[in-house]
Amino acid sequence: MTSLYAILIGLFLLTLAGAFAGMRLAEIPSVSRRILPFSGGLLVGIALFWILPEIAERDGWLGACAGLIAGFSLLFLIDRYLYPVCPTCSHTHHHEDCSRSLHGFAAPLLIASGLHSFFDGWSLAVSQQKGFEGLKVAFLVGIGVHKLPEGLALGALLIAALGTEWRAMLGAAASQAMMLAGGGVAMLLADRLAPQWTVAFLSVAAGAFVYLGYHAVDSEYQQRGFRTAWMPALTGAMGAAILRAVVSGV
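Above: the chain sequence. Below: its structure as tokens.
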């Protein structure tokens, strides 16, 4: 449990560092934007080449794929009909306008980011349970690579919405602290979750990884074209496959 909290705190600090950098890079959007499609492709690759096969070994390919599709579909419906599931990474705001105050944007952004961070912490904690050793590194890498670009975008948006760095950093810290809360709640409930429910949840989380990764890449594609978005994304996906092969061979 101590190691889990150390990991969660490390990811929390990584996101805050990204948020601080995002504030500094708000006037240079091309810098932070270059990271987004690569991390999106890496996230998809981790889900498809790493998490999905591990779950299939325990629950069969039918159950693993069903969970992944369920997770993808759930986020698709929420994102389409309720509220953007990751507004910090894929949103309708243009960084080119960040010098203009985004009135009314901070509250919904922080609420959505907080919920997103809560389930990041929950997923990571569940994957650390005994019997799921093959998924520990996969979820750690998946969430970790997603946190840096999330922090960059969060910082750029909050500085525009709140106007001062200390308010933006306070807002970023509050939303990302929900990751610690999610991990803590998952650990408290760990003994009450049957193994089959844990497997089902992790397969749904893999589907969420695929949706978040694809959504981030598609957002960049819509704004900047195929080459700018999909070439880094494919590189990230292949990087995930290579990383999986390296870890498996160790």
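Residues 92-103 have pLDDT under 50 and may be disordered.
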